[in-house]
């Protein structure tokens, strides 16, 4: 367990560094395209001008990357909660939820996370945060209506394990940075379709806008989901096992997963950036083949089978 925590901390640093390098590389590539574009006046001015444009593009992109990283570390949790439509769980109305979160936090040796709810009939829950001291657990109203106390304890124990294992930091950084790439790509494509630059360089400007949008789209919608896919499957299985260590009751999580497996209500407030955080992958409840390309969780039947082996005293 401690090895997994240390590995997740290292991976978080590695992925921040990878994001920065990719961003700088994209900026350098755009700078090079600007420099060597045939209609560009600097095309015939030699390697010095080309190097200058490449360096300028890299520096601008590097600055934007640092801004994005700083925003992720300081405000990533608030962003995830906001886009998910989460609201603070009232202490009186959601007393049982608060009691379970507090009891499990004490058992895990962690500060009590903030508790949020999402008004959505689809049963689901997720944890997010940059560290155990700044973490939040969110449950949908559909989950709270469906689960009894033992099952809810299993679900919250699973999410508490994500916090203890520092999974939340890793997936928050990856999801937020990828989401930012997607947002920038969307803004660039929108500007490409709704703006009409004039002048002799208008075609060059439009071509560069399309190239920038294409590169960001590749990062956001191809590279990003592949990274999330690689990160998430192992995390979910480990969190299931860690939950059993925390609650000493595999039956609660097994029963909860069976109910989640039978759920046929898509999670309305999900998006591709936050789907990997959920205990039940929202994308698996969409029949589109495109959605299934980005499944980030092992099949629930496989997770239940693993927990049943633990319940029977067998090794995984």
Structure, described:
By secondary structure, the protein is mostly helical. Helices cover 66% and strands 6% of the residues. The protein has helices at 2-36, 47-83, 95-108, 141-146, 149-164, 167-194, 202-247, 250-261, 289-292, 300-311, and strands at residues 87-88, 114-118, 125-129, 135-140. Strand 3 and strand 4 (135-140) form a beta hairpin. The longest helix is centred in the last third of the chain and has 46 residues, at 202-247. The radius of gyration is 23 Å and the shape is elongated.
Could you outline the blueprint of secondary structure elements for this entry?
Elements lengths: L1 H35 L10 H37 L3 E2 L6 H14 L5 E5 L6 E5 L5 E6 H6 L2 H16 L2 H28 L7 H46 L2 H12 L27 H4 L7 H12 L5
Parallel strand pairs: 2-4
Antiparallel strand pairs: 1-2, 3-4
Strand order of the largest sheet: 1-2-4-3
Q: How many strands in all?
A: 4
Q: Count up the domains.
A: 2
Mean pLDDT over the full residue set: 81
Tally of helical runs: 10
Order of helices and strands: HHEHEEEHHHHHHH
Kindly estimate the percentage of residues that lie in beta strands according to DSSP: 5-15%
User: Could you give a short account of the major beta sheet?
Assistant: 4 strands, mixed
What fold name goes in the CATH topology slot of the largest domain? Zincin-like
Based on the model shown, name its key terms.
316 residues, mainly alpha, Zincin-like, 2 domains
Short synopsis of the structure:
With 316 residues, the chain is mainly alpha-helical. It contains ten helices and four strands, in the order H-H-E-H-E-E-E-H-H-H-H-H-H-H. The chain folds into two domains: 140 residues, no CATH class; 160 residues, Metalloproteases ("zincins"), catalytic domain (Zincin-like), CATH 3.30.2010.10.
